[in-house]
Every structure is written in structure tokens, then in C-alpha cells.
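pipeline stage [seq->struct] | target=Elongation factor G | organism=Rhizobium grahamii CCGE 502 | residues=652
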Amino acid sequence: MRCFTVLGPSQTGKTTLVAKLASLEGTPRKSASPYGSSLTEFDFKDEAWCAIDTPGANEALALAQDALLASDACILCISPTPDEAVLVAPYLRAIEASGTPCLVFINRMDEPRGRLRDVIAALQAYSNHPFVLRQVPIREGDTVVGSCDLISERAWRYREGQPSALIELPKDIAEREHEARTEMLEQLSEFDDWLLEELIEDREPASDTLFAISSRILKENRIIPVLFGSASHSNGIMRLMKALRHEAPPATALRTRLAASSAADEATLSGVSFHAYHKANVGKTVLVRALADGLKQGAPLAGATLGPLQEAGNGKPISGPVQAGSIFAALKSDHLPVPALLTQAGSLEPPDWTTPPTPMLERILIPGSERDETKLSATLAKLAETDRGLKVMQEEGTGAALICAQGPVHLRDLRKTLSEVFRVEVSERAPNPVYRETISKPSDVHYRHRKQTGGAGQFADVQLSVRPNERGHGFTFAENVKGGTVPRNYIPAVEAGAREAMEKGPLGFQVIDVDVTLTDGQYHSVDSSDFAFRTAGKMGVKQALSQASAVLMQPVVRVEIHIPSVYSGGMVTLVSSLKGQVLGFDRDENAKGWDIFRALVPGGVLDDLARSLKSATQGIGHFSKTFDHFEELYGKEADSIINAHGSGAQTH
């Protein structure tokens, strides 16, 4: 079986394209759509094929990346509008990083939008691979009515619902066809010395030889051929499928490519897992592409035995071994990681290029019942195993389930899965901001803890000096007690009490950057104890903090924003509107046409940053974040935060 992925932005007609390709010769055998990615198997020219159709939303880019792991080649389906080329940038980035041979199909050419040359020039801004136009359109007015193949120089006229008709090349496009063919030959000659010599000698190379050269160059992933048509009218579909059949690499090439990208021993690779999903009453299902013959139920894979195998689409049991290249669904094989390169003895991490964008949307999931609360943690862990675009953590302070999703659509799908598959109902809220407080002036206190109960009493007397520390120095404790007024064995208890007092200051937040020094005290030979001195240390420091002019501290986060270069100009205004500080930007060395924009922003605006960035970049931009430091916050903004999240919230 040969396998290819169809990927590209939303609304470019990918699903229609797959349906038309699969229906060229008979009816597709099966189709399945777990979690947004569909698999369609069909026959073409006595060969078995599988097309993986991935969602076009940028939030689902991880699904497209994982699908490329299992694909011999891919088709990038795009719009004929030059202005929309930037929407293709994330997919070109993933394709280039993966090393997957690619063909571009410019769909919906029946809708006049722009010139092909402009579309290709716009695409080239995001790819190191040259785009090689393989056809020119035949137009009547603004309508594309056919195409001319630049290698065979044969012209075809589209016919609605029927195969295209071979026609004589119209005289009015002969000059344009000759110019485009010359450009194509020059591009191909950069990768073939024989062809270069033929062109220098002004000899016309044979079509069969040109097809062979083009096929070799595509298999070597040196170029990206560009074809066009209209899937909804079946225009250009047969030409695209023939190009895939003749020019895309065979299934055996995938094993070599995966081994090279992961430094694995090619001989040991048995399969690659690329997708997983959960179904009610079934459990985890893992989709695997076999890279070697002989995989079957009970066979060793990834260090354990395989459970029952099914055909990926229709769920029919597979009784015997599967052939290399086939895709199957593994049940009751929870040991299989996804995505991963699989050997009989174990599994290997997938290549780095499969790492999805950093999730930007953080939400607390609130269980609907006590039963849901019991199940939620384990259920989220299961989902995180099958979705690398999802991160699961705990909220600081509350321990509530905190998830990081790719965006609102990803979050909606997650909640749907929790409800429909695992019967866990949740609501959501934004996480509590992480604020701190510190002091702005020193304070000295004398605190005596005395308590008389029925038995032994409690007595501890401490004199404490509380001072602001330098930013980032945290809590420090010292003592300069002289003359044994506080026995040495009680001093650690005073420190422990002081640390407890840091957990919540007068503003209602954790206290940072404070130095506490024990300067003097008294004890009682009978009533003093560790507990008494710990209590005295805690209450004494609390009293000192209340007298030391507490100041609210907000977190400041360093962000790296990844965006196509065309959007970089708007980032200064965006960051400034969120009270951030621009640090600068650089070209992204790993992705042509992309920039990395660096800034410092308040931690409380990350949700706003995610929304604004999506809006400003048509959903393409994403950012990663790391905590940088805390800084003081004053005025009305500080007061509103204290009232909403700190000590003020408890008085209402």
C-alpha cells in the first residue's frame, strides 16, 4: 500500500480532493474520521492507496505533522489567491522539516482569483524548495477551461463530469507555454547534469526522459511540482493522481527516511504509530503503518505483544499478518506510544519536527460531580498520551486540573471527548493569576507567645528584624542572638514559623524577597518548646509584614512569538497595547519567511495576547513563554487585583 497526506488551510477543498482521487477507479473501500483526521483507502492502477485528510485549522497542525510520519508523499492543497499564500506557511514549514516529498495542487481554479505566477512567487517566500510549475492554464476570458502539460506539451480541455479531452494546443497560449516550459527545464537542470548539457547544446530532451528526471528529483525531495485544477468539477484530478503514482517515492522509501531522521537502525524499524483515539467501551485505538512484513495479533512490537488488529476504516478484524506499507488499527495495545517509531523490542521518540506548537490557551477544568472529579485526572493523562498538542498540569495553590490547549476549537473537542467517550462532564474557567507580594520598608517586632492550659503552658519570646531583600533573592533567615537568650535548638523552629508566615501576606498573596533576622528573645525552662517558638516566629513575622508597607508583585513573562515575517511590523503595537516591552526580533533560522519576536509581557495578559495574536496573524502565529521575574504593581490596577484575588476578595 502507498500512502499520502493531503494537508493545507481550511476552505481549500481538501476533503473534496480526496474524495475525487479515491473515486477515479471505482468506489473507495473505506473511510474513517477519528478526531478530525480521515483515512480513505482505494485502488488505482492495480495498486492499493491510502489518503490521510487532515483538518485545516491551525490548532490541528499536530495532526498533520503526525500524518506526515506515515506518508510516502503529501499533497499541499491551496487556494489560487496570492494573498492567501501566507496561510500555507505553517504547512510548508512542517513539510520542509519532515523531508516529505510534496506536490502542490492549486485547487478551485474555476474561480478566477489571480495569476499562477503570483501564487507561486508568494509561496516561494516560505520554502527553500523551488516550486516548479508543471502546467499552464488554458483560458477563455477569465475562465480556466483546460491545461497544457509542460513536459509532454499535450493540451487538455476540461469536461464536466467526464475525463478531459485531448486537444491541439491553442495558438494564443503557445508563446506562454514555451516560456513556462523553458523556465521549468532550467529549474530541473539544476538537479541533473545531463539535462543541463542538453539545454546548453540546444537539444530538445524527450518527454519520457524528462518525466524520469522529474520523478527522481521529487523522490530525492529536491523540488515541489505545482499542478492545478478544480476538485469539485474533477478537473486536473487524473493528472495529479498519475503524478503521485509515477513520481512519488515507493512505500519502502519511508523506512529509510524515518531511520535517517531519527538516527535509528533501519533494519530494526517495524512500524510507525501516527494517530490514536479513544472510543467508549473500546478504549484506546492506535493507528500504525507497518514498515516490515509480519505484524499480526500477538506479534512483538514496542516491547510487548500486539492486541487484536483491525482494518483502519471499517473495523473488520485482520486475522493474518499485514504487509509492509499497510495501515492497521491496534486495539488493546495501550503500550504503544503515539507518535513513535516502533521496533519489536521497544519504541523510539519521533523526530523533533513532529513537536507541535506550544499550546497557548490555559484553562482550569471543573468537574461536574464528585464522581467526575475522581475520574478527571486519570482521564486527562490518557488524553495527553494520545494528543501531544495538549499539556496537563495542576494549578499552583489549588491543585485543580490545568490544561493547555492549542486554542478554543481544540478545547471544545477535548470537552466533547471527555463527555462522549469518558462520561466526564466539566466546565471551565481561566486560571487564577500568579501574583506575589513583598515589603517596601523594614520593620522590627517584639512578639511574645504565652498560653496557659490545664497542663504545661506555652511560652516563647522573639525579637525579629524584617527587611526587604533584593529582587529575586527570595526568603532568607539569619540570627545574631547572644548569650543564649534563645537556645540553639529552638532557632530552627523560629525559622520554620517565619517561612509559614510567607505563605500568605497582608495583601493575600505569597510573600517573596524578605529577610528575617532573629535578634533576641526569651524562653522558659518548662513551658518553651519547638511548637511555641514556631508559633512566635510565625505570628511575629506576620505582624512585621503588616507594618512594612506591603507591595503587590505581578509576574512578568518572556515570550517568543513565532510569526511569518509579513506580520512582524504589527507586533510592536500589539505588545505595547498589552503593556509589554519589546526586546527585538530575528529571522527564524529553521523556517524561511518566519520571524521570532521577543518581548516581556505581564503574566496576566497571556490570554489577551493569544487572542490578539490569532486575530493579527489569521490564526497562524503562536508563542512560547517562560517566567522572567516579578515586578511591583501600584495604583488602581493593583487595588483591583487585591480586591479580586487577594485579601480584598475575602471581605465581600
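stage status: PASS
auto-comment: The radius of gyration is 32 Å. The chain has a mean pLDDT of 91.
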